[in-house]
Amino acid sequence: MNAQELSKVTILFSGDSGDGIQLTGSEFSHTAALYGNDLSTFPDFPAEIRAPQGTVAGVSGFKLNFGSDAIHTPGGRVDVLVVMNAAALKKNLRELKETGFIVANTSGFDKRNLKLAGYDESVDLLAEIKSKYRVIEIDITKLTREALKETSLGTKDKDRSKNMFVLGFLYWLYGRSLERTSAFLETKFAKKPEIAEANVSVLKAGYHYGETVEASLPRYEVKPAKLPKGTYRNISGNQGLAMGLIAAGRQSGLEVFYGSYPITPASDILHELAKQKNFNIKTFQAEDEIAAVTSAIGASFGGSLGVTASSGPGIALKTEAIGLAVILELPLVIVNVQRGGPSTGLPTKTEQADLLQAIYGRNGEAPLPVIAAKSPSDAFDAALEASKIAVEHMTPVILLSDGYIANGSEPWRFPMSSELASITPPMVSGEGEEYLPYKRDEKGVREWAIPGQAGFEHRVGGLEKEKDTGNVSYSPENHEYMVKVRAERIEQVADGYAPLSMEEGEMSGDVLLLGWGSTFGALKVAAQELRLRGEKVSHLHLRNLNPLPKDLGEILSNFGTVIIPELNNGQLVKLIRDKYLVDAQSITKIQGQPFKSEELVNQVESILQKSTN
Amino acid sequence: MEENQSYTAKDFATDQDVRWCPGCGDYSILKQVQTVMPDLGLPREDIVFISGIGCSSRFPYYMNTYGMHSIHGRATSVATGLKAARPELSVWIVTGDGDGLSIGGNHLIHLLRRNLDVNILLFNNEIYGLTKGQYSPTSPEGQVTKSSPMGAIDHPFNPLALAMGSDASFIARTADRDPLHQREMLKRSHQHKGASFLEIYQNCNVFNDGAFEMMTDKKGKPFHTLYLEHGKPLVFANGEKGIILDGLQPKVVEIGTDYSESDLWIHDEHDGMKAYILTRMFDNPADGLPRPFGVIYSADRPTYEDLMEGQIAAAQEIKGEGDLDELIAGRNTWVVE
Q1: Which of A397, A419, A441 is the last residue in one of the domains?
Q2: Which residues contact B161 (CB under 8 A, 6 or more apart)?
Q3: Coil, helix or strand for A231?
Q4: What residues pair up with A305 in beta bridges, in sequence order?
Q5: Residue A258 included in any domain
Q6: What is the mean predicted confidence (pLDDT) over B174-203?
Q7: What sign has the CA pseudo-torsion A358, A361, A365, A366?
Q8: Do A454 and B70 touch (CB under 8 A)?
Q9: Cβ contact, residue pair B334, A34, below 8 Å
Q10: How confident is the model at residue A214 (pLDDT cuts 50, 70, 90)?
Q11: Can you tell me the distance from the alpha carbon of A109 to that of A479, in angstroms, rounded to the nearest whole number?
């Protein structure tokens, strides 16, 4: 193949939410991953299942950044914009680089589509665009129908395959094999062989179209990435999180009970776990968010690892019950796959605005550990770590993910189960005559006795407890003592952290970029870029947000400027300023979209300029 | 496991002082539950009492078993998770008319339709006690309370009709002042495999004294109550009156000249349609119908936890017990050399 070699490419597939854009994007990702590219993806779709056809509101997108270099983000502006209709162009044209090109389905640019997208119907839009960008025009609808003219499928069914034409064409453009997607289609439509066959032939038609139609079309090659040696798979955040919970069950010897009420973007965790019943995972689709968390508390009382997950609105509903788990001192993992808020907010968009809710959002003094996943593959480790803290410290733990991590995917050099950390539940031993349910060890952790253990019968509850015995107590001194003990025991969780290390840069310098959660990739790339420009920038990313690591204070003091970029109105920055009295600077973005690394670079530069002026 | 044959009621009492108001109906219920426990043949460590919030919900602190005093309205959902996780445990839920039917109404109906094998004891005193005397979802219309000085305008729930409407597989009614019947109903609730819903009329002598007096004092009881027994005719008023079904309408008849016992409605616990009529013998005091006590309905239906365990067993039979490494690797991997 005579092709131009590129080190990375960003493609944005876009079309109507019924056009199969998500499937097209994820198939291209799987094929690229199997080929050995490093990659990062970002699906972005409307909250409505079928938003009004042809309108800008109904545009669904799937962004994919793949390369032979290390990839940490889904990329900034894109090299290739695939538009199935005029609305997709209207929404996404600003995402296209000046040097990029467009693949356009011309039948999506008829008068009706122009009108629905809000363009002037009398203008030849594509011709106008062509004066600025290279546009590969293909009448995909027509060619798809033609490819299927021998079949008995109706026009509607034929048109459903048109995403495969685009995919086939892009496979040709980037010299990719059709094998993985063909096999996928045959499995997906195993019960409808006619549909499977139609999709595969359209996929091939798209590929052959590239070969036959225009000798002038450029082709590109993106070689496999030089990733660390090992065996890889592709993983999404919700998948990784679900697997981490299953692994936690195995590592602790506890049954996992997952109580959950469907909510975007957390539901896929429930779907993943419900498929793995043979791992003795109990999934319970509760009647509401409160039942989801309280059933998990009931299961934990019975000796299971109780887990519940939701997004912001659902977490708000679970709040009282999380307080109960705090005072009971039972293991519980609460996953918050954050989305734009407040209230229903932006259900399908990403945001990091529930950090303060996680740390402070309960009545009374109710501290608990809070940890955050930083990428789709890291969601596995984060789920395992959250479970380990919950079980070994007998406490509810909030694990923060977000829509970007949940739906995004990346290659993962997965571990062997033998390499995973063990989890040791503090079960009671002995005969139980002396059992005091709230007597603590040196870490402040009580011993766990579960129903069925003779001699350890005891009662727990939400009323304040007497020290050691756990009996109801209204004593003023006892209450103050218990509040302090519960705070101290959570502080002691930090004793188990590994020392902090930089993602980029040295342990001291001019600027520290301090982040948490899904901004990891964008911060890392921004730090690399700033360092190339000669700035003494380091990047530190926090896994543990409560309690904060004990070595963080000293690290902060080793930098002239601390900058905290977040996808909220400034939340971690409040915690850092409060705890360390550091004049940390804030960079915020609250658009339901992840940071682009170039945005961060520009904002850091402008903060630095201000401070030198 | 402890030797359970040697249990007495005292073995189920804790060292905690019982703090209900003197004269509260809850004392009788606690005593009957502690009395019945040794007869159930269960090791004490396998019994769990879960409650929500309210006067009745202090119950677990006084039972020397495992127990949890949870949060308002959630005893049913906490118990659902516990029973699903540990099907072998005997799980008892103690709740009240506020806890179970108002703030926790949603979980109650869903527990009933799912049919977990738990025993729900709903202490109905038709008032909010712990918050000091507001009307509850079972307070009759017009009841004057602190929060309804001109009379409650809320139409009350009929708890057993609500349970029937939620497809409960066992519903029964008893009263705090009838210890023998209470013990029998507690045993029947325990014996039923599936969710048992036992409504216990409980007198709040501080905020709603005498709410059920008509049905519990010696004078009124024979004429205002009907004690149901499976396969037996519906007879009350010391054997002088009975109930016939006129179409779908229950009617009180005098036994003697016009009607004999063989003409009466014969109680069949398994008849859901008639059970619904029994739950509605509540609606109109002018009908002169007595209030039915006893097991109104009982049906065999698979339990949620059995179905859940069944799916796990079926999945394991097909796929084996789950290989973590295979799961983590998934089906599409590639190697970077």
Answers
A1: A419
A2: B276, B279, B280, B282
A3: strand
A4: A256
A5: yes
A6: 98
A7: negative
A8: no
A9: yes
A10: low
A11: 70
Beta-carbon contacts of residue A294 (< 8 Å; ≥ 6 apart): A259, A321, A324, B70, B71, B74, B77, B78, B81, B107
Shortest distance, CA B138 to any CA of chain A (angstroms) = 23
Q: Which domain holds residue A192?
A: 4-221
Rg of chain B in Å (alpha carbons): 23
| pLDDT tops 60 at residue B3 | no
Is A32 in the same domain as A124?
Answer: yes
pLDDT band for position A199 (50/70/90)? Answer: very high
For residue A433, pLDDT over 90 is answered with no
Q: Would you say residue A501 lies in a domain? A: no
* CB-CB under 8 Å, A295 with B334: no
**A91 located within any domain:** yes
Write down the pLDDT at residue B4: 47
DSSP string, A400-421: EEEHHHHH-EEEEEPPPGGGSP
Query: Over the stretch B8-56, which tens digit does the pLDDT of each residue have?
Result: 999 999 999 999 999 999 999 999 999 999 999 999 999 999 999 999 9
Evaluate whether residue A157 is within a structural domain: yes
Which chain A residue lies closest to B327 (C-alpha atoms)? A243
Give yes or no: residues A298 and A185 share one domain. Answer: no
Q: Choose among A299, A451, A454: nearest Cβ to B81.
A: A299
Which residues from A are below 8 Å from B71, CB to CB?
294, 320-321, 324, 462
User: Are A193 and A46 within one domain?
Assistant: yes
The pLDDT of residue A320 is 98
Q: What is the ipTM of this complex?
A: 0.97
Q: Do B322 and A414 touch (CB under 8 A)?
A: no
Q: Which of A198, A221, A244 is the last residue of a domain?
A: A221
Q: What is the average pLDDT value for chain B, to the nearest integer?
A: 95
Same domain for A396 and A332, yes or no, is yes
Across the interface, which of B82, B88, B320 has its CB nearest the CB of A299? B82
Contact B85 A224 (CB under 8 A): no
CB contact under 8 A, B45 and A451: yes
Domains and CATH numbers, chain B: 4-230+268-304 (3.40.50.970), 233-266 (no CATH)
Instruction: Name the average pLDDT for chain A.
Output: 95
Residues A535 and A562 in one domain: yes
Split into its structural domains, chain A has a count of: 4
Cross-chain CB nearest to B85 (options A230, A247, A257): A257
How close does chain B come to A286, measured CA to CA in Å?
Answer: 9
Nearest to A452 among B46, B77, B321 (CB): B46
Using DSSP's 3-state secondary structure scheme, residue A355 falls into helix
CATH number of the domain enclosing A249: 3.40.50.970
Query: Mutation test of the interface with chain B: which of A287, A410, A436, A471, choosing the one with the most B Cβ atoms within 10 A?
Result: A287
Taking CB atoms and an 8 Å cut-off, how many pairs form between chains A and B?
Answer: 204
Give the pairing type, strands A585-588 and A559-566: parallel
Buried/exposed code over B233-243 (b: 16+ C-beta within 10 A; e: otherwise): bbbbbeeebbb
Give me the amino acid identity at A543: R
Predicted local distance difference test score (pLDDT) of residue B224 = 94
Q: Quick one: closest CA in B to A325, which residue? A: B70
Per-residue CA distances from B78 to A124, A300, B50 (Å): 63, 10, 8
- pLDDT recorded at residue A49: 77
**Same domain, residue pair A122 and A191:** yes
pLDDT at position A147:
94
Chain A residues whose CB is inside 8 A of the B335 CB are: 230-232
Please tell me which of the candidates A36, A294, A454 has its beta carbon nearest to residue B70: A294
Position A613 scores a pLDDT of: 67
